[in-house]
Amino acid sequence: MVLTDFPDEKADQYFSAVEIHVIEIAALTRKLRDLGTKLPDNTLESKIINLVRYKSHGPDSQRAYVNIEKEYDLDDPLPDSLPLSRIVDLIIHSYVLQAIGENELVFTHVWVTSDYSRFSGLYQIRLKDFLDACVDVSNTWPTSLHSEYDQKAQKWIHVVK
After folding, report:
1. Rg of the Cα trace of the chain?
2. Nearest-CA neighbor of 55 among 95, 1, 113, 13?
């Protein structure tokens, strides 16, 4: 969506809708992994996404309600990368999840960090890269499944390739 097409009176609705869909996609992607036999082992861990990280100003900068500009150094973007497994966890447990735009486009990236990682930094993830990675994962099929019963743990252990 181009900025000129963006009605001001519906801004909150549009941003919320994008953020809700990002959460849904992250949760469904992680669920595929958590089911244990739907993806080859380590599929989410091996899918690496390049992103930008902004340093936190530390615990003293935290507010009762998030103030991104005061809590993070947005003037010093640092190139970084994270596995998709970490990104979906950040989104699901987000302290910050904010859709943002670039140039004339409204929704190009999201800012995200979790309660657990909020002092490690704020991550800026390109939406296209996140969505492409999730689509790639959902199109990945296991080619073999080996199951063995673990007497000590009293459960089946599955190895999926």
Report:
1. 18
2. 113
